[in-house]
């Protein structure tokens, strides 16, 4: 009887390890998030345009000047990132290669040049999608960025 109870307990333990309480994240399409992005822009007085190909909402405050920004360009930026509930998750200045950024930045940053200033409201699929970046950024979170390009090389 003892052996039977031990075997049952071990089998139950293994079976419980196989169960997954994790729900599978399903990416959200930019079209499904469009009303949420537009509402954020309206609440925050962002006079936006929409890039039909990507679903990014944007406002160019200053286009800047100089050479085009390429994926291989190093850009010095000052920026603020927020969730659409206005929770700020980052404020910093740094230099990065454009190709190291999220797809939404890779798409939107080339719309301006050195000394340019742009606001991007990025669908979650072009941000971190199902891969939350920090405790502040949940999965499938559309993001807002206010970005100034300080230098391009």
Automatic annotation (TrEMBL):
One of its GO terms (molecular function) is peptidyl-prolyl cis-trans isomerase activity. It is an enzyme of class 5 (isomerase). Keywords: Isomerase, Rotamase. The keyword Isomerase applies. Residues 72-153 form the PPIase FKBP-type domain. It catalyses: [protein]-peptidylproline (omega=180) = [protein]-peptidylproline (omega=0). Its EC number is 5.2.1.8. Belongs to the FKBP-type PPIase family. This is Peptidyl-prolyl cis-trans isomerase. It comes from Deminuibacter soli.
């Amino acid at each position: 009887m003892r052996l039977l109870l031990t075997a049952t307990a071990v089998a139950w333990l293994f079976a419980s390890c196989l169960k997954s309480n994790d729900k599978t994240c399903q990416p959200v399409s930019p079209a499904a998030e469009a009303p949420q992005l537009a509402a954020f822009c309206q609440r925050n007085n962002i006079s936006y345009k929409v890039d039909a190909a990507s679903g990014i909402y944007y406002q160019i405050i200053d286009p800047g000047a100089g050479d085009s920004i390429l994926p291989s360009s190093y850009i010095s930026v000052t920026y603020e990132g927020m969730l659409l509930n206005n929770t700020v998750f980052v404020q910093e200045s740094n230099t990065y290669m454009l190709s190291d950024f999220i797809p939404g930045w890779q798409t939107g940053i080339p719309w301006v040049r050195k000394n340019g200033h742009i606001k991007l409201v990025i669908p979650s699929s072009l941000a971190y999608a199902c891969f939350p970046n920090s405790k502040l950024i949940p999965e499938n979170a559309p993001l807002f960025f206010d970005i100034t390009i300080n230098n391009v090389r």
